[in-house]
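Title: Prediction job returns without error message
Component: structure pipeline
Severity: low
Priority: P3
Assignee: unassigned

Description:
Job completed but the reporter wants confirmation the result is attached to the right record. Sequence as submitted:
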Amino acid sequence: MSEPFSVPVTVRGYETDALGHLNQSVYLQYAEHARWSILKAAGVGPAELLAKGVGPVALRTTVDYLRELRAGDEVSVTCGFEWGEGKTFRIAQTITKTDGTVSAELLSVGGLLDLKERRLIADPRGYLRALTDRPELFGL
């Protein structure tokens, strides 16, 4: 199996709280950055999605905070799709320091929203497969 898609991020000082730890909400921003990065790498950017009248939506996210991060820490944020049947899919993400320490694990449930009908697309797997020439990035 190939390595999961990942993007590097350096923790910035203004993202930390009064104790010097990465603010808990910023973990979600790092995860969002990785999700948009995988879409971009697959040639499916915001403009392409909007032109088709579709938008990715996060329906639920859980975060397990495992180890603190501080300003200057360098991490990688992975992004892996898990497909089932139906209108939703899961995205598993890990935030890992360069020394291998796992700082957080996130699991999201998402879908593709028809922006006109305001309903989830019935087959998000097939829809993404048709949009990209790099389906392997989505585990397809």
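Comment from assignee: result matches the submitted record. Strands lie at 5-10, 54-65, 74-83, 88-97, 102-114, 119-120.
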